[in-house]
Amino acid sequence: MKVSTQWLSEYVNFEGVTPEELAEKITRAGIEIDEIEHRNQGVQGVVVGYVKHKEKHPDADKLNVCTVDVGSGEDLQIVCGAKNVDAGQKVPVAIVGAVLPGDFKIKKAKLRGVASQGMICSASELGMNDKLLPKDQQEGILVLPENTQIGLPIVQVLGLDDAVLEFDLTPNRSDCLSMIGAAYETAAILGSDVKLPSIDLIEAGGSASEHVNVSIEDKELCSHYAIRYISGVKIGPSPQWMQNRLMAAGIRPTNNVVDITNYVMLECGQPLHAFDADKLGASIGVRSAREGEMLTTLDGQERKLDPSMLLITGDDRPAALAGVMGGLETEVTESTVNIALESAKFSGSSVRKTSRKLGLRSEASLRFEKEVDPSAVNAALDRAALLLARHAGGSVAHGVIEQKGEAIQEKVISLSLPKLNAYLGTDISMLELKAIFARLNFKSADSAQGVLDVQVPTRRGDITRDVDLIEEAARIHGYDNIPTTVIEGPTTPGFYTKSQAVRVAVRRTLTHGGFHEAITYSFTRPENTERFTSFSAGTHAVPLAMPMSEERSVLRTSLVPLLLEAAQYNGNRKNADLSLFEIGKVFHASEQKVTAQPVELTMLGLLINGSRTDGAIGTTARKVDFFDLKGAVERVLEELGLEAEFRADSPDGFHPGRSASLYLTGAQDKRVGVMGQLHPQLQRDYDLDDTYAAEICLDELYERAVPEIEYRDLPRYPSAQRDIAVVVDLEVEAGALIGAVRESAGELLQDVRVFDVYTGDRVAEGKKSVALSLTYRHPERTLTDEEVAAAHQNAVERLEQTFAAELRK
Amino acid sequence: MRERLEQLKVEALEELQSVTDAKHLDELRVKYQGKKGKLTEILRGMGGLSAEERPVIGQLANEVRDAIDAAVTELSERFEREETERRLASETIDVTLPGRKLPRGAVHPLTRVIEEIEQIFIGMGYQIAEGPEVETDYHNFEALNLPKDHPARDMQDSFYITEDLLMRTQTSPVQVRTMESMNGEVPVKVICPGKVYRRDDDDATHSFQFNQIEGLVIGKNIRMSDLKGTLQHFMRELFGSETEIRMRPSFFPFTEPSAEVDVTYKKKGATEAGWLEVLGCGMVHPRVLEMSGYDPEQYSGFAFGIGVERIAMLKYGVDDIRHFYNNDERFLEQFAHQ
């Protein structure tokens, strides 16, 4: 809502307060002022002039030489190129020494040999917004009303010495969609009074009931519908001051009738509509549209109506979309003589639905949607009728023709002062509280001890219960005057839950290991949900109903494709050698056509590519491989006190021979992760060189994780180490050998690890040599050679039996 | 004998003067002081001395030996020192060459901000609550006093999945779920960080996906002044102890009274701190309490919400929100400080 301070000052006195100060005060009290627009864009010394004569320029076809009286006693000779300039006009004249917007100074000049003592200005030369000018003023010089006084500063005539405050209204404060509402707010903040405009209407001529009657079909949708009949209007421009105010509010002046309805809407917040009464017909109805009915609205669009839309009808024919827009057929035109002036209260949600359905929003629908003040219906109607009589020459017939539902009562809400102070943490007295509501123009009266009965004016529909009054009191009292305190009562412990602690630990581990954390988008393209399906198999991706683009049309089902896209993005910027991870959710729906919330899994995604080097001279960079990633995964699990088994089962999306699934030791039927080299085909699709990725379901780790440290006693007796090298078939996995050793070497075995794998000349084709290092220890004594030898022999025999292993000596 | 000893001393010290390396020194030491050395040889004649002469000559012999010893020791130390210096000189490296780097990774700046805020609130006795990113219309809107067709729904355009399911537009539904799970018990003291989604054209300051942290406290006698005190503490922890806050009345459907909070903040290059809007808050609306099982006549509460991206942009001087989601390594690595 654009609030002209000049206009506002008619209702509330804020003399001595600059627009900037006023804006600050209003903002601090709850309505943000986004912008202060000074209507004068830099006009100085421009006055009203009267064109006495116009002659053709002797040497230029398109120029005229005008003699202009600017009230200085001496006529000026001004050369003007505008087509519409003519003798007898009142026009804005920039005399020598004047300044126009853009710091354009007017000097004496000669145009094609003829002296010119100034310039006749167009509206846009005066810095006025073209879009807001009446159509006939958008081209050529600005022609002012005939009765404009010669010599007056144009700034005053056009109301340019005005600052317009842009109220950024929150949805609850629709009361300030009117100047009077803005005035009540300003008065409450400044502690001054509100002076309302006059509605001393003089009725003349016959009774309105001779001309029109009104019926409402459903009072739920329209609780009040009122018509005044005004005859004999003369269509013409509205007074300049009214046009100025409309323009300040961002509305383009049209003609006196339309301007008056808009003016009163801005003034009272009550939208009005003027019908050409002779085209509308005598029987005015408010009813729902019938299937198949059509209406051409004022904007020239033919609209197909349906029963959810509320209509105004004339003799049962559609005449207007109630509260949204009038119809073209019954529009006020230059030939209109008699007017049916409508003021009504339509249901906000009905107007909202219609306006949404048709994609049609107007100043009227904006206000009706947020519920207009029910008591403003008649006041606005009378005010507009008064202005029509005054500025359009109409005579207002006797009486208001109206239908309405139950009369609206002002709400009375009891407010307990102790509750208010307990709620805010303040120490406001009853006297102060009463003063606050007096400032707000809310009547109040003591009821019980410490309780104030507050009468809420109908214009404040947002106030429905005591906390709403507490807010009003708090903001007028000033939020700055609320103290700062600490919460009273028992203290509570703050901590991370186990799953939260796990995620923090994973992040620390990976960043210390050189991984950067990425955050990708949750929305992705459909192809990305068809890849890396290890965790989403048997489920469906969740599409957005109205995506912004195909690229972001469905919820991700795996983190891997998004990390690949991040790698691609980096690759395009020559950022090679990535180590990225992300912790985030993926979404899996159990149904194709989603009806319930999908399963959300928290995943850890990892990606590495390129080479690694420690950066020192003499060390060469090494390409990353499967085992770099495996090491990172193992380190994460280790940090959580977990151990996993890696099974070469070729998970989806990866190189079949260089990938594995992870199973937690002790829960071997549940896959918790996948990892490997990206499938070569996908590497091409994402334009990547050798890239390794992993995805681990953190939800599966939380319960078994041991993120805390558990101390174990240090061993007191020495260990014994024995190495074995065995020759086995190439296909035998090292993990299988380790498993066999663990099972067979007995309780003394502490650790077993692979330290070499050899294929080549010294072993037969199709064979490999695997070297294992076994560590034995007894917790309570030093082992004897015999004990170790016996355990070791068991292990060797098991390897020989199970894998036909040949011991290398 | 006396003369021979004196002469030996002179001869030995003179010869030692000319020594230039440790090997030669050792030879001379043996020559004079070894078992078959010159001094031993002279002293062998001690037997032939008289009882009066013997102690005198003995003392002289000791003096000669000490003098030679001292000279040898001094030289030996010098040679050792010189040898060490030579060795060190030959081992000199170029210390300006690069070091062997430890791996260095970065927590994402948005996570950094979230973790920092989590730590502040954990310190104040809060727990961290989480909830689904795909929400029901009820939890995202209706239970927050935003019925269908409420004009305030215009404030945020949403990504719907079905008529009843949408990407959460705020983390407030986590508050609703927390209240529901508490079955009317108090105190409730949680913050809810997480991703939220709103239909918005991406530009330098808008992203359709962003992060929010909301806080919720419910208990007996929770006051608006407690909210103000809590936020003042929070903002001082986050932006420094000099930070001041102010509240401005505002509107949110789920709080009443509602406020926007400005903090004093000195922008890059600015000479003075100005007010900057950073969060929205208010007293939990009684309708919201009722719907989630709390009697508003018995309990009250406050709630607040803050945008993580905005804080990260302010704290680190990032000027384009899209950087947070491009995952450019050159951007991410700048946040590697622990």
What this model shows, in words?
With 809 residues, chain A is of the alpha+beta class. Chain A has six domains: 2-39 and 163-190, Phenylalanyl-tRNA Synthetase, Chain B, domain 1, CATH 3.30.56; 44-157, Beta Barrel (OB fold (Dihydrolipoamide Acetyltransferase, E2P)), CATH 2.40.50; 208-404, Phenylalanyl-trna Synthetase, Chain B, domain 3 (Phenylalanyl-tRNA Synthetase, Chain B, domain 3), CATH 3.50.40.10; 412-481, Phenylalanyl-tRNA Synthetase, Chain B, domain 1 (2-Layer Sandwich), CATH 3.30.56; 498-702, BirA Bifunctional Protein, domain 2; 720-807, Alpha-Beta Plaits (2-Layer Sandwich). Helix content of chain A is 25%, strand content 29%. Chain A has 20 helices and 41 strands. A seven-stranded mixed β-sheet of chain A has the order 27-30-31-37-36-35-34, sandwiched between helices. In chain A, strands 3, 4, 5, 6, 7 and 10 form a six-stranded antiparallel β-sheet that branches. In chain A, α19 (734-744) packs across α20 (785-803). The longest helix of chain A has 19 residues, at 785-803. The mean pLDDT of chain A is 93. Chain B has 338 residues and is α+β, with helices and mostly antiparallel strands. Chain B folds into two domains: 2-90; 109-335, Bira Bifunctional Protein, Domain 2 (BirA Bifunctional Protein, domain 2), CATH 3.30.930. Helices cover 42% and strands 20% of the residues of chain B. Chain B is built from twelve helices and nine strands. In chain B, the strands form two sheets. Chain B has a seven-stranded mixed β-sheet with strand order 1-4-5-9-8-7-6, with helices on both faces. In chain B, a hairpin with a 2-residue loop joins β6 (245-252) and β7 (255-265). In chain B, α1 (2-17) packs parallel to α4 (53-90). Chains A and B meet through α8, α11, α13, α14 and β27 of A and α5, β1, β2, β4 and β5 of B. Chain A: Its cofactor is Mg(2+). Chain A: Residues 715-808 form the FDX-ACB domain. Chain A: It is found in: Cytoplasm. Chain A: Its main location: cytoplasm. Chain A: This is Phenylalanine--tRNA ligase beta subunit.
